Structures are given as structure tokens and as C-alpha cells.
């Protein structure tokens, strides 16, 4: 299982890459493997400001639909447009081309899990 050291993680299986005041967010390798083949990603919160732990979208797999939770508070500024035509990128490249949204961070960063803490959470 791939758990990049440079990223932060949530107990809800989202990853966060923080660059200045911009956070790139997606779901972890563990999450995509548990969900199975992803067929649709829905994010209708672009332009909205959300609090940490609020739902920013959903991901639909062959067998289930799962909510996506904001790991940080901020304004959703960008959606990964590639996912409209290629939602399977979340399966094949969850930490690269499968990213979901970019957020302009507002307020304090919540405590997020390190790669080692996340690996312990998922039993990796």
C-alpha cells in the first residue's frame, strides 16, 4: 500500500498536500482499494467555503457511494476536471492525476495524521 511520507491524512481516508495556503485533496490508496472501481466523482462545492469535516462531494464506485470530507477549512477553488471523463484515475493514480479538489485554506490547520500514523490506522 502506498502512503507517501510528504502528505497528511485524515481518519476518513483523505490525503492533503499543503503548499502555502493551497491544499490539494484526494482519497488515499487504501480508500480507493476498499471502494473498488470508481465510476463517478461528484463535487458541486467549487466556489464554496466549507469547514473541516464537512462533505465536499461524493465518490461512486461500482458497489457503493461514499461522502468526501474536507480535511481543512477553506474555499474550494478548483476541481480536477480530468475526473469527469476518467474517474478511474482515482484508482490508478490516487496521489497524482487522481486528486480531487484544491482548497484555499482559511483559519488554523486541524491536526492531521502523519504517514506513519495513517499506516497504523489502516494496519499497513
TrEMBL record:
| Residues spanning the signal sequence | none
InterPro entries reported for this sequence? 2-oxoA_DH_lipoyl-BS, Biotin_lipoyl, GCV_H, GCV_H/Fam206, GCV_H_sub, Single_hybrid_motif
**What does the record say about how the cofactor binds?**
Binds 1 lipoyl cofactor covalently.
Residues recorded as bearing N6-lipoyllysine in the entry: 63
Question: What keyword terms does UniProt attach to this protein?
Answer: Lipoyl
**Superkingdom, according to UniProt?**
Bacteria
- Pfam families associated with the record: GCV_H
| Protein family | Belongs to the GcvH family.
This chain belongs to the protein called Glycine cleavage system H protein
- Organism annotation: Algoriphagus halophilus
List the taxonomic lineage. Answer: Bacteria, Pseudomonadati, Bacteroidota, Cytophagia, Cytophagales
Q: Which gene encodes it?
A: gcvH
Amino acid at each position: 500500500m502506498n502512503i507517501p511520507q510528504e502528505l497528511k491524512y485524515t481518519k476518513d481516508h483523505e490525503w492533503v498536500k499543503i503548499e502555502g495556503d493551497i491544499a490539494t485533496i484526494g482519497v488515499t490508496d487504501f480508500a480507493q482499494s476498499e471502494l473498488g472501481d470508481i465510476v463517478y466523482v461528484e463535487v458541486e462545492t467549487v466556489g464554496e467555503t466549507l469547514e473541516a469535516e464537512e462533505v465536499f462531494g461524493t465518490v461512486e464506485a461500482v458497489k457503493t457511494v461514499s461522502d468526501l470530507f474536507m480535511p481543512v477549512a477553506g474555499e474550494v477553488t478548483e476541481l480536477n476536471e480530468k475526473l469527469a471523463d476518467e474517474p478511474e484515475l482515482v484508482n490508478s493514480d490516487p496521489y497524482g492525476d487522481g486528486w480531487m479538489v484544491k482548497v484555499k485554506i482559511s483559519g488554523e490547520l486541524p491536526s492531521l495524521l502523519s504517514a506513519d500514523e495513517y499506516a497504523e490506522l489502516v494496519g499497513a
